[in-house]
Fold this protein.
Amino acid sequence: MAELTPMMQQYYAVKERNPDCLLFFRLGDFYEMFEEDARIASRELDLTLTSRDHAKDKSAEDKIPMCGVPYHSSESYIARLVAKGYKVAICEQMEDPALAKGLVKRDIIRIVTPGSVTESSMLVESKNNYYACVYGAAGTYGLCFCDVSTGAFSATQVSGADAMQDAQNELGSFLPSEALLGGTAAEDGALADFLRDRFHTCVNIGTDAQFDPALCAAAVTAQFGQSPEALGLANMPCVIAAAGALLTTLRDLQKNELPHIRALELYIAGKFMQLDLAARRNLELTETMRAKEKRGSLLWVLDKTKTAMGGRLLRAWVERPPLRPPPTARFPAPRRSRAV
């Protein structure tokens, strides 16, 4: 293997820190991919696979495969990869190449995953895009769901003899694009297989360090400005672990402090109608059984909303029907209700 150039050494150093991502490495006006990332991108995006080395005296093994996309149109390519379940790490030039002395500094500015997409062009605006986290311990499961694009953050806890079934039903009501599993929720692989097979969810298995009780409690306090006890989580260690791990993961992906996520909605059994997966499928709440499309479903019949926000709210009510109607005071004027 020929000696690597400084630029390729920089590439491999960044890639080593993000081994599970396709690395978009900024070079001039292009994001380039190398080695196995290039082969995958070439196959999935129908790109021409080339080589950075054109010397005739180099063997095929010494030539590094590569492909690239223009940086100004990269969003559409990233969207296609994310839709297929891939994670994309964007490595940007951190200084002006014209002013840089020596090798241009580069670093990851963001990691785009199925559950952390924020660009409207990659999302269905009338549908929430949830990143879920499930942590289990001693027959109890804490579940958290966050839509990074809107800042919605919900949490609940299930326990008892049917805890796993209840957890699956909750996941079925949110249909997360991506999920992080920890504790007993990740041990036997059953929940991970369930998410992949039923909902085509991108599943990540967390480490013990990600679910450290002290770190998770600190993450929750820092995000919401209140202690877990003040948020109603005093006797819910599994929820605290799931919420803290999810917040930390999203901060690492977004490379910011998520200032738009300001409230945690804790809900318990009795707030929403309990529907198992079979009932949801047979009732065709949001999609038909055969075609798997919205047209012909209950949501299709009811959806006369005018805005994306209204569409998301109606979908949430259909997927998780509240047992008590919202207070009339929340909708003081008929004109305001029609605007939704």
Remarks:
- The first helix runs from residue 6 to 17.
